[in-house]
Amino acid sequence: MSDVIVAGVGLHPWGKFPEKSWVEMGAEVAMGAVADAGMEWTDVEAMVSGAMQWGGSTGMRSGNTIAAALGETGVPIANINNACASGGSLMRAAYAMITSGMHDSVLVIGTDKSPKGYFPSVPVLADEPRPPVDMVRWQVGVPNPAYWALEMRKRMEAYGSTEEHLAQVKVKNSRHGSLNPYARYRKAFTLEQVLASPMVCDPLRLLEICATSDGAAAVMLVSDKKARRLGVRPLVKVAACSLASGEFGDPTIRIPLLAAASDGAATAPLLSESRLAAQMAYEQAGLGPEDMDFVELPDNSSWHELQYLETMGFCGEGESEKLLDAGETALGGRLPVCPSGGFSSFGEATMAQGILQIVEVTWQLRGTAGARQVEGARKAITEVYGAQANNSACILTT
Amino acid sequence: MKQTPVLEGAFVSDPEPALVGSCCRSCDTVAFPASFTCPNPRCSRKDVVAAPISRTGRLASWTTVHFPPPPPFVAPDPFVPITVVEVEFTSEGIQVVGPLTGASPDRLRTGMAMETVVEPYYTDDSGEVIGWKFRPAEGGGDE
């Protein structure tokens, strides 16, 4: 089985780009990743691309659209959508194509332009006998952050977490983001400023929930044979790439559902898909959480960061706040969390955010992350969080 | 005025308001909204029937939504924040979300008894859309 090497990466700055098409953004990062790998567009053997729902039918075939723009070469192109976990799912698809020996180079592209505000549901055009639960949940009035707020209140009850903890996550990640020229938000916020931001779904405030952004990222994955031929240095290896879905009996009320197993009757853990994806990745890499030098986790909200540190095995239940309070999750700490600034500083661009994490880890492992460099970084894990129990984790090593 | 349920078959008003889910006669798994099959992966018989859920549960969590959700949510102008509550039904082993009614969120305490009611969600050209809501059980509300 061939090793999988990150030969090249491309990243577009994140923000709002009303004058620029997602096709241009996707083409830019695709060519960026190809060039960074020392390759030509015509050398790419296969492509996987995020099937971008906000772009309508054309967006769902983003890979073919980008290939048509850059010049069609007849290669296999798969367009994949796994909600906010799409980036990890794309990575896994490309990883499998290389480890199986099917291809020596696969280009992974995520490009997305998001609607403003709460993510809406995509209309159902099929002739269905009843409305999907995603329509009903909007009539009830449950936007995505409400799901996270319901979990956070339980966390506060169970562990005594406070509004200050939620704000401190943002303070930390905004400090990291202020050091990243690609981030949408580069202002370092104070605790007072975060606590003064408007309440959205209590206890979550505006600055504690990631924005919805336009963004694009691409990664050129190659076999070790191809990497040697290209002379890739340093060799950033994809040591694991997992994909998991939810388990029956999980008490998480998942976006966009309206019910779940009760906490008392649960037979699976909270965020069972996320716990599974992390475990699968550790097993695949033969490494554990204690081996990681830093982590890029899905900080869709401050609740996520607190919860995912536990879900990914970095501490016991209810202990994330202690790591935060002790400064261990900040740059310079024992386990920097989201040195890129995280989704908190970039905003969500659902097709691209998982690939953004891979780009950041690659730069960190190459030692080229500039002011936000994690000293001596050799191993890191990334994890995304997708609606309706989609999850993927990747471990990169050098 | 014509009344339309937000989701056909998801609740009843008589003899008392209650959610209706599905229950598997083989493994007792309850689902809400009702499913055409049993979601337990280890259940092979998957013999489901519609089943009312206990009227009263306990409050597991809640949040107040301060910005109006997008359509098909119908927001009054000016928008009045809505509170979404999560209620645990112990006998059925499930927790369900729905809008709070009949009490200010300030009065909510984890574990308090909540009961299901059926009330209008909003009015549009087709009439009144009705659905389930939760309020503190008898003696616990503001009314």
Describe the structure.
The complex is a heterodimer of chains A (398) and B (143). Chain A has 398 residues and is α/β, with parallel strands linked by helices. Chain A has 2 domains: 137 residues, Thiolase/Chalcone synthase (Peroxisomal Thiolase, Chain A, domain 1), CATH 3.40.47; 239 residues, Peroxisomal Thiolase, Chain A, domain 1 (3-Layer(aba) Sandwich), CATH 3.40.47. Helices cover 36% and strands 17% of the residues of chain A. The model of chain A has no long low-confidence stretch (mean pLDDT 96). With 143 residues, chain B is an all-beta fold. Chain B has one domain. The model of chain B has no long low-confidence stretch (mean pLDDT 94).
Describe how the helices and strands are arranged:
The complex is a heterodimer of chains A (398) and B (143).
Chain A: E1 4-11, H1 22-36, E2 46-50, H2 56-60, H3 62-70, E3 77-80, H4 86-99, E4 105-113, H5 133-140, H6 144-159, H7 163-177, H8 191-195, E5 199-201, E6 204-205, E7 214-223, H9 224-230, E8 237-245, E9 259-261, H10 272-285, E10 294-296, H11 302-311, H12 320-325, H13 342-346, H14 353-366, E11 379-383, E12 390-397
Parallel strand pairs in A: 2-3, 2-4, 10-11
Antiparallel strand pairs in A: 1-7, 4-7, 5-6, 8-12, 11-12
Helix pairs in contact in A: 1-3, 4-14, 7-11
Chain B: E1 3-5, E2 11-12, E3 18-24, E4 30-31, E5 48-52, E6 56-65, E7 82-89, E8 94-99, E9 113-124, E10 127-136
Parallel strand pairs in B: 1-10
Antiparallel strand pairs in B: 2-3, 3-4, 3-5, 6-7, 6-9, 7-8, 9-10
